[in-house]
Specification:
With about 270 residues, the protein is an alpha+beta fold. Helices cover about 55% and strands about 15% of the residues.
């Protein structure tokens, strides 16, 4: 019996450990591909027999970028089996560059200019992320129109971290589900504050908004019913009058004390003895 209970208690720990190892595996896959780029759209067999040499010539022309030092490609090849029919969908090319700063430079140009046009073909360049990371990035991109609608500033960073700021408050999101929940809350708050035709909640509908009568308040009919802000102003005016009266009394007391002192000093000279 104790053995069975021990196994039952170890199952959640084992699930947490598996989830942790899975996340570490995804991170390692993303890190190992940080020097890689994927190229889509080149026709089949356009690279010839030397894919690295083909890319060393095509990439600077395609991105209109001068690389200093010259680009060095460690390895490059087409993904998947060779197509027998050249008219079918071409295979993507994956290339591993020697210098990561050149990868970063290529990706900046690719994201800014979008798909490239060359010889009637549309070429796309993407980073090399794991499947799980690509799914998270795709989920973030699908929520971009909603963020623009709610006037939320955002930025997507590698591998899959979305930064947002709204009303001076910044947040980081690593999963699209958390971002969706955050945007839903923002949308509900904006609807509550901007939509005058929005029906009241049950608590607001059942609330008595009428002003209490004088009998309920226990006040005299001769005194007007002051609202909270008017009560504060009235209390402040009374305190101001009290302070003025106190200050006047202090000044009068000081004048009287000074007069008594002067009389005490003049009294010996006026004494006939």
């Amino acid at each position: 019996m104790a053995t069975v209970e021990g196994h039952m208690h170890s199952v959640p720990d084992r699930d947490q450990e598996l989830e942790f190892l899975r996340s570490k595996l995804i991170d390692l896959e993303d890190i190992s591909g940080r020097d890689n780029i994927h190229l889509f759209g080149f026709p089949e067999q356009a690279e010839g027999t030397d894919t690295p040499s083909f890319l060393r010539t095509v990439l600077p022309q395609l991105t209109e970028t001068v690389f200093d030092p010259p680009m060095e490609i460690q390895r490059a090849y087409c993904l998947g089996p060779k197509r027998k029919n050249c008219s079918s969908k071409p295979r993507p090319i994956i290339a591993c560059l020697l210098r990561h700063d050149q990868v970063h430079q290529i990706m900046i140009v690719a994201r800014a200019r979008g798909p490239f046009k060359t010889n009637g073909h549309e070429i796309r360049i993407t980073a090399d992320f794991s499947r799980e990371t690509n799914e998270r990035r795709r989920g973030f991109l699908e929520l971009c129109p909603k963020m623009r609608q709610l006037e939320v500033k955002y930025g997507l960073f590698d591998p899959a971290r979305l930064w947002t700021t709204k009303n001076g408050l910044s947040k980081n999101f690593y999963h699209p589900e958390d971002l969706q929940l955050y945007l839903d809350n923002l949308q509900s708050l904006s609807m509550d504050t901007t939509d005058p035709d929005r029906p009241l909640s049950a608590s607001c509908e059942n609330r008595d908004t009428s002003l209490p009568s004088l009998e309920q308040e226990g006040t005299d009919r001769s005194t007007p019913d002051l609202r909270p802000r008017d009560r504060d102003l009235d209390r402040l005016a009374k305190s101001h009058d009290a302070c003025a009266q106190l200050l006047q009394a202090v000044v009068l007391h000081t004048q009287l004390s000074d007069r008594d002192k002067s009389r005490s000093l003049l009294k010996p000279t006026l004494d006939p003895t």
